[in-house]
Amino acid sequence: MNENDTEKMYILLSDEYEPTQNPEEADLILINTCSVREKPQHKTYSEAGRYKHLKKKKPNLIIGITGCVAQQEGENIIKRLPHVDLVLGTQGFYFIKKALETFRKTKKPVILTELKPDFKIPLILEKENTSIFPNKRVTAFVTIMQGCDNFCTYCIVPYVRGREISRAPEDILKEVKELVKKGVREITLLGQNVNSYGLKEKGYPDFADLLDMVSKIDGLWRIRFTTSHPKDLSDKLIEIMANNPKICKHIHLPLQAGSNRILKKMNRKYTKEDYLRKIEKLRNAIPGISITTDIIVGFPGETEEDFKETLEMLEKVRYHEIFSFKYSDRPFTVAQKMSNKVSEEEKKRRLKKVHEVQAKITKEIYESYVGKEVEVLVEGLSAKSKDMFMGRTTTNVIVNFKAPRLDLKGALVKVLIEEAGKHSLKGKYLETLKI
Ligand code: SAH
Ligand code: SF4
Which of 64, 374, 385, 430 is deepest in the core (most CB within 10 A)? Predict the structure, then answer.
């Protein structure tokens, strides 16, 4: 989501600025931030501190902090870092042009951290025939909703991104169509809880119908979405996923914890039994679907028994990949005030254990791809080796492969998988299916 917000800022600023990789060269430095855990929040301050000396050399340099940490900290940022000029929150960053104008006039810090419950996400499209993204993009994100109403007790998102607001379906379709015109083949629809898309707004389609609408766009080959809250995953969505060939066979379904007692304290509103039933439905309806998840270890009061239930769930569900985190106290949240916090050392131990258990499962699953032919959408050259291409299967597994031709970026190809790595597969190019 942050990456997508960054792209929006690039587009908004593209008539005034060009991107540079070199901070010494920059006239404007924006640090777009995440505050979901404590670590990225600390990084904001150290990153911003790093640019202080540049301002001495170049007094006209403008430095801004945008996104969730800006939202959370507001003017505290200016108190701590007086060399920062702009503090633009999760709605405020859309007004970057105006903020720059005001700053240039007044030379005083501009702070935009109001969160309006009726905020309408503006439609920001790249201009025709221009591209500020230097390489042709094969995949892109499209935000379909902002904010969250779920208030999981550990989570800062509802406080820094505000209440849930869905974007108008016309705007979403327009944005996808524009991206497809520019060569994008795969779209990931983004929201904190995509399954509740459109439910609060009058006359909007629900998420399953939105997927159907987006899939009718010619030239778009693949659709992904994230994140699905397990409590709102409907039978209708499962059916559409099963029947619409453009929707990828992958779902990210954050479990967070395996113990019902902890899930209740987290305010997740499902039990592990509910969760397993949904997994079964998904697997029955969509054979071969890959499932990934988020796990938090060491939530306040999590005992060794509770933790073992998380490990058991990993074994039961057999996720392709997981993202796991040590619980981290966040401002404004309910969990922050809970007693029986788990020690840092214990959280570290549990995280390590989670990694171990999952590494074995991922390895087994990846090895099961060896010898199979898979369809891969080619995203570009591989990061590791310049003579290989990189793409993904419909199940969202990264595949690296060599090919006899060089024009495969953006193509859908068939690859024979020959080798399984830790987080990717290696294979041999067989043929081009679509270009
Ligand atoms: N809306 C998504 C999650 C967004 S935050 C959902 O409900 O699944 C991304 C992930 O960060 C969460 O799934 C959770 O695993 C993790 N996370 C959020 N708050 C956290 C905290 N206080 N400590 C550790 N991990 C956290
Ligand atoms: Fe945070 Fe829960 Fe909302 Fe996800 S659903 S953003 S974890 S409050």
Answer: 64
Nearest to 233 by CA among 193, 201, 273: 193
How many A from CA of 156 to the centre of ligand 2?
8
Ligand 2 center–CA 95 separation, angstroms: 26
- Ligand 2 in contact with 229 (CB < 6 A)? yes
Q: Which residue has the tokens 């340099």?
A: 61
Given a cut of 70, is residue 242 above it in pLDDT? yes
Residues 421 and 329 in one domain: no
pLDDT (tens digit, 9 = 90+) per residue, 260-306?
999 999 999 999 999 999 999 999 999 999 999 999 999 999 999 99
Asked, for residue 127, whether it belongs to a domain, the answer is no
Give the separation between CA 72 and CA 75, rounded to whole angstroms.
9
Single pTM value for the model: 0.95
Give residue 266's domain range. 139-365
Extract the tokens encoding 212.
Answer: 């159907």
pLDDT at 69 over 80: yes
Structural domain contains residue 124: no
Are both 12 and 158 inside the same structural domain?
Answer: no
What's the number of domains the chain is made of? 3
